[in-house]
């Protein structure tokens, strides 16, 4: 029997904090695990072919809300450098704003079987 996604769950978490590499915690203390990070050329970069143009990749992140084995959270200075923000804050229009002011669109927020899933895509500067 194929598993189907439930309708949209409504409001995603208001804030997500990195506690360990690839693991975030929301305001309710639930953990979100980064399952997939996909980098792909942006539409803007593909359409430009100029040698001096910047080719920023488009980043899409798939996160699952699931319990993880409890461990001490790491401080921000202990976390390795990543393309993903340390903190995401939900803003109007189903978008998150990262600490570095980058915007991330909520592509999907659904429940598949018993797993809540959140898909975010980085919006490139000038696309908001």
TrEMBL record:
Matching SUPFAM superfamilies: Oncogene products
Family matches, as Gene3D superfamilies: TCL1/MTCP1 (2.40.15.10)
Entry's Gene Ontology molecular function annotations: protein kinase binding; protein serine/threonine kinase activator activity
GO biological process, alphabetically ordered: intracellular signal transduction
Pfam family, one: TCL1_MTCP1
InterPro entries: TCL1_MTCP1, TCL1_MTCP1_sf
PANTHER family: PROTEIN P13 MTCP-1 (PTHR14060), T-CELL LEUKEMIA_LYMPHOMA PROTEIN 1B (PTHR14060:SF2)
Similarity field: Belongs to the TCL1 family.
Record-given protein name: TCL1 family AKT coactivator B
Lineage start: Eukaryota, Metazoa, Chordata, Craniata, Vertebrata
